[in-house]
Automatic annotation (TrEMBL):
Region of interest (Disordered), ranges: 755-775
Protein name: CarboxypepD_reg-like domain-containing protein
Positions with biased composition (Basic and acidic residues): 755-771
Taxon lineage: Bacteria, Pseudomonadati, Bacteroidota, Bacteroidia, Bacteroidales
Domain Outer membrane protein beta-barrel: 480-773
Top-rank lineage group of the source organism: Bacteria
Amino acid sequence: MKTYRLAGLLLFLMGIHAVLYAQQTRTIKGRILTLETGSKEKQPLPSASVVVLSKSDSAFVKGTTSDKEGRFTIRFQPQNKKTYLLKTSFMGMQSVFLGLKDSTSVNVGTIVLKDDDIRINEVVVTAKLKEIVMEGDTTVINAAAYKTPEGSYLEDLVKRVPGLVYNKNDKSLSYNGQTISEINVNGESFFSGSKETALENLPANLVSKLRVYDKRSKEEEFTGVDDGKKNYVLDLQTKDELNETWLVNAKVGFGNNRKKDLEAQANYFRKNGDNISLMMRSTNRYQNSIYKDNINNSIGLNITKKLGEDLRLSGSVNYGLNRNGNISSTYQEQYLISGNQYSSSVSESNSKNRNISGNFFGDGKIDKRTRFNFMGNFSLSPNQGENSNQNATFDAPPGIDQNNFFDNFESIPKDIRINRSENRSLSKGQSNNYMWMASVMRRMDEKGNTIISLNLQNSDTWGINKNFSLSNTTYYRLKDKLGNDSVLFRNQYLQSPTRNGNWRMGLSLSQLIAKKVRLNAAYAWSTLYERDNRDTYELSSLTTADTFGKLPNNYQEGYVDSLSNRSRSRFKGHDLSMGINYNDTTWTLNVMVVVTPQKRTVERKIGKLSADTTMNTIDYRPTIWLGWRKKQLQLNLNYDGMTRQPSLSDLMPLTDNSDPLYITRGNPDLKQMFTHNLRLSFQNQAKGVSANVGWRMEQNSVTQVMIYDSQTGGRETYPMNINGNWGVNAGANWWKRMGKFFSLRLDAHGNRDNRVSMINEDKSQDPEKSTTRTSNLNCEAHLSYQPAWGGLDFSTGWQYQYSLNSVNNNDTFTRNYRFGLESYVDLPFGLQLRTDATYEFRGGTNIQKDDENEVLWNAGATYRFLKNKTAELSAYWSDILSDKKNYTRTVTSDGFYEYRSQQIRGYFIVSFKYNFRTMM
């Protein structure tokens, strides 16, 4: 019966437009090409602005942009006895105006835009160019307005643009607080949108404009309707003179401390998005730990190509070999009701990871009303690693320098010691995965009032990890039969195979139900299978510590049933979604609700204990997006809500004691969690102002209750639901060009978070809340001076963090002051000098004197010679004063952490680079 009802609803929605959409709509179609100065061949012009204007008063009626082929379709509702104009434009080109005929369907044919004939010299461009302009929903940034030193990469350009922030540590990129998911080149994917590849490899002088916009999915492009899902991209528009040219370069660099930097690139770009790129690199230049074998080798090939009028293909293949080692230390203060617990650890690790991966994408059309697209990826990742660790726990501060902690361990009073452990591990594993997806979309009528889409997706992940572990744990408050400190020794081998598989099939409908209003409905069925096993073997009686890492022939005799497990789970779900979309020249509204009835089953066995769980639940995901725009002004309000079920491992009522100092068990009474996110953002590009504010709250958060054993220092955890996790954040920035050479940028960001955990120091009592409130404030100022002979950038920043924990009123604060200066000067005969320096002063709770100040000073020189300066000889000296530190502090709901790692104190590197340029 439910099936008949669903079919009836779909038929009703497909026919409703005949009643509600009775008014006549005027459709304008055409194609925009460009004829650049000095060129005879016309090329498609993507992202050109196309607007309909009222002829009497030039009032804006409707607007759109051309696609990657230069084609556009625009529909609007004409008024009686009114005439209209069509305006096509693109930054730096002459606009074209056409009168529109009084007809329901108008094909204006091919429109050719030419470069503006007005030419101005370089100094005037720097002074007169508009830095940032709005073209509909697209932010266009003129790269020429932000001068970078010759030879810079895209990363140097991005950090000069107001609102763009690239975090090199986690490879995240954002614009005015909005996450940018990928980087494209001329509207097409570049190495699957990899931000790191583009920012750290493409030269800055390749780019004429940077465009930030919400990239439409293939469904949105086909229907012309925003589905409410935001996918912001940074699209690089390449310079005209560099298009259809092979840009090839090679670099060789060597330095002290085993530093090397070998690189070769070949890039070919076309304005229509076609590109070929080959990148090869072997470097340890940016790996600053003292481990001598650090290296990062990579080879990548990316191709995007249009095949005829109806098919475009894109793909990339990458190979990577990464060896990384590190020596680090961690200090932790655990918040407890009876008195805090303190621990210190020192770790030395190294790893070797290989990866072979590929991505492919294609889209095209079967006929005028039917399009298709497909994509897929794969990855093969063998890996191996080694780690040695020492850790100790106390019930009072040990009072020893963290850098030499275990060398002076015996000086720590015995009455505050709880435990000490020494651990060593060797691991070797393999992880593989693939995914593919295909979809077909069809307009059910010529106007596209009704559109149906069908999609299919499959993925699979499998692998195995093999691990040898050797541990020796001393408990100072437990005694053996002879009255000595209790010692637990383990020599184990673990084997953990995993496999996950997923299938998903979906059907969606987009129906125009009234002027500027669309109804979107979809159904999808999905299934997921997971298998996760662990086999544990105790080798203490079968081998010796001297043969660690070798598996004896009779290792199966050491099988430990209580430390092994078998887990199987299966998920079956139905996604039912319904949404309304309204879009005109000023307002955009998207409202959507996704309801997911699901069935989850799990079978798990730990030792001789086993448990089966089956759950029938419903998840909800409501979203609301409201946008308003007028000329250079934009205001957006969005709400995202999502329920999430607890993990099946958390629900299983079984205890895992494979780590004696960290025992875990489940809780079958957990409830689903609901997360709310609300964000309001504002932009006024004409005034150079943007701001945003956000709010987050969680209901029924899953937190881990900690049960502490004062005798062993170990902890046992189990999950439970709790309320009280919330956070607010706000940010604003302002930028201004002052005269010809100066620009100023101010940024301020802050947040306040309330995080809750639970502590249970006595199993006979109910757990008590541990609440940590954290406040952060970060203010920065950047002043730039960019004359013709070079550049000078001054920056300063202040960061403050304060946290207060409800357990014994533990409070900590950290205050950082930073001053930076970066400059370069272009001298005669192709010589360029660069230097940058940063002074940072750090103060706060428990900040040691050696960690208070840090001065980083780097300098370099480059000499460019031969014809057209194609050869470069450069020298770079990093951390001239040898004062670099790697020190971070974090505060969570249950504790305070400090992390340090040993760093190379200064290095120099000398490089030679040759630039080829071949015209095609």
